[in-house]
Amino acid sequence: MSTQTTPPPNTGASPHTTPDTTGDAALKDRHRAMWASGNYDRIAREVIPVLGERLVDQLRITQGERVLDIAAGTGNAAVPAALAGASVVASDLTPELLEIGRAEHPDVEIDWQVADAEALPWPDASYDVVMSTVGVMFAPHHQQAADEVVRVLRPGGRLGLLSWTPEGFIGRLFATMRDFVPPPPAGVQPPPLWGDEAHVQELFGDRVEALAFERAHVDVELFSGPTDFRTYFRDNYGPTLMAYRGLADQPERTAELDAALDALAAGADEGSGRMRWEYVVVSGRRR
């Protein structure tokens, strides 16, 4: 399915070499299992349904454009892009999420494809637009993922990546859970770094022009209070669910995690359970 070519001269892109991911097989299997656990489709549908639409609107995706949605999940951004008339490929490492997206949107024309964000199976310069909504940020090796974003984007093509920020609520959620999970393998980077401007600028370098960062927030009013938030994320959000599973035989540590997540949610409550979760949209054009 995949062919590889050398990028045209003077595009600012480096030739593609498929990363050696042999040593990462177990890591990728864990990632698949984590995102297949729980009910991420419920979170995408109930908590953050507007994010994909916002990204598609900001990218001004139009009729006939070739669009790749990386780490698309159940189609949060892929669906509105397809409804805008684009030719959309929704890719994800986790086939279970793609199957849910396909079943939920049977009348929307999308090509659902299993693919690793760090080793995409498409030729260089295949797409007019490459996008991701809180998706590519979870690829464990940021530079490999960024290189693939640039590689499959045609010169002059647009990228748009929506990521949680380190300072925002989800960034703080991951910082809170860090003390309750095993340390990641060497070389694996924290997902919220994709919300750090300096980090993203370093990842793309001079291969992307007009690189812009726009911070915004999504209002979340689903939870009645801290306990409601904690139980919802414990049961539905893969990273939180797996953190609890790892503490299954440690009741004291489980109670500590309960208290830490309750404190996090209580500190973010702006009244009546309303929260504001910050994200950043990174946009630019491939040189």
TrEMBL record:
Region (Disordered): 1-24
GO molecular function ontology, one term from the record: methyltransferase activity
The organism of origin for this protein: Nocardioides potassii
Biased composition (Polar residues): 11-21
CDD domains: AdoMet_MTases
Keywords, ordered alphabetically: Methyltransferase, Transferase
GO BP term (any one): methylation
Regions of compositional bias (Pro residues) in chain numbering: 1-10
Keyword Protein transport set for record: no
Methyltransferase type domain segment(s): 68-159
InterPro entries: Methyltransf_11 (IPR013216), SAM-dependent_MTases_sf (IPR029063)
Keyword Electron transport found: no
Name this protein carries in UniProt: Methyltransferase domain-containing protein
Pfam families, A to Z: Methyltransf_11
Lineage of origin: Bacteria, Bacillati, Actinomycetota, Actinomycetes, Propionibacteriales
